[in-house]
Amino acid sequence: MEIRHDPYSALRFREFRFFVTGKLILTVAVLMQEIIVSWMIYAQTKDPFSLGLIGLTEAIPALLLALPGGHLADRFNRRHLMMLATCLMLIASFILTLYAYYWTSQGTWPAYAVIFMIGVARGLYNPAQSSFWTQLVPRENYVNSSVWNSSMWQIGAVTGPALGGLCYGWIGPGESLIIVSCLILVALFFYSLIGNKPIPPAIKGETVRESLQAGLKFFFSQPVLISAITLDLFAVLFGGAVALLPAFADQILHVGPEGTGILRSAPAVGAVIMSVIQAFYPPRKNAGRKMLFCVAMFGCCMIGFALSTVFWISFLMLLLSGMFDNVSVVIRSTILQIYTPDQMRGRISAVNSIFVGSSNEIGAFESGFAARLLGLVPSVIFGGTMTLLVTAITYKLAPIMKKLDL
Asked: Which phi-psi region, left, alpha or beta, contains residue 254 (left: φ > 0; alpha: ψ -120 to 50)?
């Protein structure tokens, strides 16, 4: 007798609902803040390269702290680490509010200093939350929980930039950042409703260095992990057009902060649509081939976006890019949870954060640098073309992806 698939199975666990609700609200807050700060800096500099520097400034501490953060997530209370990092984000938001009201005359360096602080918080938060949610659902619900975990992030990614752009245009940056701070407080409340979970057993006498080495050794011994993460790494690295949206909105499409917020939300709108589809039709069969196809189509969407001079076509290209990217995200996330033992989830999540999570910010820097070197439109075409090339190389050199089922 065939067992009926339950698309809401993960959401039937109370603490998982608290977790994804808190994550949703925090995502809205962080991405609101991102669009507000981007426009604050761009308004002062009118330079696309300054937008790329935002990503690099956040990526440096996130990269440096990723492996230590992963070690902490495997040795200490993951919920407490999440809440500590969220508190750091709250402090950063408060300082940015003061900057918006009183310190903009000092130039952009105070904003970059706070962005660096947010990168520190991310270095603690990402490994802790990535390894924590698997403790809230049984193993058989990992694929479904991965879909809903991604869905809530994407819903936040739809709402956050749109709200950020609208609030910036309507009420100004200072008042908008006050709203951001309030949302982060609400996210903290939902995280506080989750009970503490057991800390995974550690090897007795293992030093921090040995712990980190063990995590890296395990990762590089798993070809499927290397293939999935490397593919996503280069796709995200060269597909950083979203970081240049204020410049595209200003120079190509001639829309203001409100239009930028809508465009920034477009990939997440597509991702939410695809998340709902995957909740009912999870990507289990031929998952590797589906991932390769979707990454290639993501690159095509970036090229289409670069060539567009019409707002709704640009929105459509970004929306489709989000749909294709979401398939890749869900498959990679599921691979990480299935192939990683619980006592190593923090460190492997940290490796994933190094190779994929922070590549968003490094990709933003690459896009800003390429835009200065090649020009705005050619830089994005170059990124999309490189994504297609990386997909072709992975297809040729990583046969395990062509055979992968979940």
From this structure: left
